[in-house]
Write the structure tokens for this entry.
Amino acid sequence: MAKPEQLYDKDFYAWTLDQAAVLRQLPPTDGVDLGHLAEEIEDLGSERLHAVTSNLVHLLAHLLKAAFSRNPQVLSHWRSECVAFQRNARVRYSNSMRQHIDLADLFSDARRAAMADFADAGEPVPPLPSTCPIPLAELLERDFNFDAALERLRVATH
């Protein structure tokens, strides 16, 4: 097993869960609120996980809009937004989060957001894929390919 300081650098989310568990096993100490301290450390990990999932929802929603919008003038804006959301998710992600990320649920949220944006923009809501055709690992790649992701979404509706 990795030392705590190594785990901190390698997988911050796993470190927060591990350290919270260790704190909960320590005997009570005067002046140290171990229970709340453990909760706060867990919350740091939860916030990191939330940042990843939130960025993934935004990434997927923007990919859907870019793939299916009838307005080509917004494509460059959505491309730059996707680059930012993808990077934010990628740099915060750690392997131990995988078991806590439900890509189907995130895609459902992204799909609803994209449909609302189409309606708000006065565009007809196009048929969108019902399931995410892009694996999580691909969404988190350093060399994420925006155009390939758009094509996978388009092909998934046929």
About this structure: The mean pLDDT is 93. The radius of gyration is 19 Å. The first helix runs from residue 4 to 10.
